[in-house]
Structure formats: structure tokens, C-alpha cells
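Project outcomes to date are best conveyed with an example. Our students and postdoctoral researchers have been running inverse folding experiments weekly, and each run begins with a structure described purely in C-alpha cells. The record below, which covers 126 residues, was selected by the lab manager from last quarter's runs and is presented without edits.
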């Protein structure tokens, strides 16, 4: 599987909230720094390992009433992939975050995700 295929599979699995599919695509010591969700959860450090991925999905379910990610331009680099896109969501307390620019930086180890950094590039429009 090439890098682009791996990353697209991760996006598809996230859209289906299939944590086990993402775990199958990740190294045992994967590190995910999802800044938006972590901030909403009051978390000050990345999610680590397969249990960390499960914690991340639990936080997504607890924080977001609706969360859709829309990947756009995908650029393959030497050790990973950079994806530019947007996120659309609403927290359980009603805060709307639609059209937020996002950059996903995915580092790969072979055909598996070693790290993922998700960074909003714009705040909520309005």
C-alpha cells in the first residue's frame, strides 16, 4: 500500500468511526496529537498507542455531537503525507465549528501510521 492509500484509508475509517480499522493501520506506539479535540477535552498531551487511539475516539464521541473532516489537497513527502482540508462540527454544548481549515501531518513507518498531528489553521468562521 502506498502512502496516499494508507492516509485515505485512515480518513475513511475515521468517517465511519472505526477505531479498529485505524489501529490496524497504526504502529503499536502511534502518537496522535489532535489539537482541537484535545483542547476541548482539556488534554495537554498526545494520545499514545492503540489505547490512546481508543481514548481519542472516546473523546470525539463525548465532545462532538457532529464532526466531519473533509480532506483536500494531499501531498506526499519523504517520510509521510501532509493533507490540507476542513472540519465541520458541533460540540455537545452547541458550539459550532464549521469550515475550520485543518492540516493533517501523517508520518509513516513502512505502511503504518507512526504519528498524526491535526492542527486547525483557522478559527470558526464568522
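After processing, the design step wrote out the following sequence:
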Amino acid at each position: 500500500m502506498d502512502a496516499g492509500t494508507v492516509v485515505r484509508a485512515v480518513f475513511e475509517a475515521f468517517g465511519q468511526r472505526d477505531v479498529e480499522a485505524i489501529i490496524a493501520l497504526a504502529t503499536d506506539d502511534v502518537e496522535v496529537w489532535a489539537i482541537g479535540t484535545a483542547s476541548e477535552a482539556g488534554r495537554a498531551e498526545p494520545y499514545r498507542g492503540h489505547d490512546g487511539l481508543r481514548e481519542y475516539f472516546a473523546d470525539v464521541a463525548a465532545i462532538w455531537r457532529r464532526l466531519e473532516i473533509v480532506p483536500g489537497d494531499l501531498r506526499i513527502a519523504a517520510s509521510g503525507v501532509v493533507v490540507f482540508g476542513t472540519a465541520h462540527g458541533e460540540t455537545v454544548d452547541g458550539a459550532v465549528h464549521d469550515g475550520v481549515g485543518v492540516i493533517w501531518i501523517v508520518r509513516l513507518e513502512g505502511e503504518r501510521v507512526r504519528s498524526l498531528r491535526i492542527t486547525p489553521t483557522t478559527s470558526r468562521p464568522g
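The mean pLDDT is 93. The domain at 3-120 is CATH 3.10.450.50 (Nuclear Transport Factor 2; Chain: A,). The training component of this project remains on track.
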